[in-house]
Amino acid sequence: MPLITVSMYPGRTQEQKDEYAKAITKAAVDILKTKENHVIVVFEDNPKENWFLAGNQL
């Protein structure tokens, strides 16, 4: 059962998340050969100030 976590900045609409979750689910089904109802997608909206790259805030 794939559990796919997507972290991103806040601000995406529910419609965008719905569309992205469907696309991710389809890709998981096609590539991982699993069933659609076994794929879980979790969105984590994290403020930009919580993101760092190589120790530097983005």
Strand order of the largest sheet: 1-2
Shape: elongated
Radius of gyration: 14 Å
Give the SSE order as H and E letters.
Answer: EHEEE
* Strand count: 4
Q: Please indicate the percent range of residues in DSSP E strands (runs of 2 or more).
A: 25-35%
Distance between the termini: 33 Å
SS-based class: alpha+beta
Task: Provide the residue-averaged pLDDT.
Answer: 97
Helical element count? 1
- Report the uncertain regions: none
Biggest beta sheet attributes? 2 strands, parallel
Helix content: 25-40%
Organism: Candidatus Nitrosomaritimum aestuariumsis
Protein name: Tautomerase family protein
Briefly summarize what is shown.
This is Tautomerase family protein. It comes from Candidatus Nitrosomaritimum aestuariumsis. The protein is α+β, with helices and mostly antiparallel strands.
